[in-house]
Amino acid sequence: xxxxxxxxxxxxxxxxxxxxxxxxxxxxxxxxxxxxxxxxxxxxxxxxxxxxxxxxxxxxxxxxxxxxxxxxxxxxxxxxxxxxxxxxxxxxxxxxxxxxxxxxxxxxxxxxxxxxxxxxxxxxxxxxxxxxxxxxxxxxxxxxxxxxxxxxxxxxxxxxxxxxxxxxxxxxxxxxxxxxxxxxxxxxxxxx
Length: 192
Known about the structure:
Layout: E1 4-9, H1 13-24, E2 29-35, H2 38-48, E3 52-56, H3 64-74, E4 79-84, H4 89-98, E5 102-105, H5 110-121, H6 134-144, H7 149-156, H8 160-174, H9 179-188
Parallel strand pairs: 1-2, 1-3, 3-4, 4-5
């Protein structure tokens, strides 16, 4: 069986070391590097060209979402699996759109993570449950950018009433009840 070379990027030392020990217990996995932020993940990727990079979203200096395109530039053969405590479908959709092969919740079992790593190493992309339509994502991005309903309607060439409908559907789907909450959510998942 072919060795799967892995870099683990997480800003918590206990998580990095724990994952390293856990994954090293699988005979076909070799942990070749550890990184504490997005910049270190890029450097480790350049230095070791791993098969799979496990990348946390919420890291200081350069977060996982912002690091994904730079990591892809550093190594076109490295597959990126994002680890996150946020496992909502829109996060998974956001990371796949940026070029990662999927998102694994930090609440997942070791077996689930292992299977995701195997799939990533084979070039597979994890399935993504679509939470938001493309139009809802566009509206959410514009809300995150601080645009008013009238500005969004003008930008998208649709009725302002339709924007109000999209805004309400976003609040219902995401279980967010304020404008500020929508703005914060759009920014957290990298839409704004």
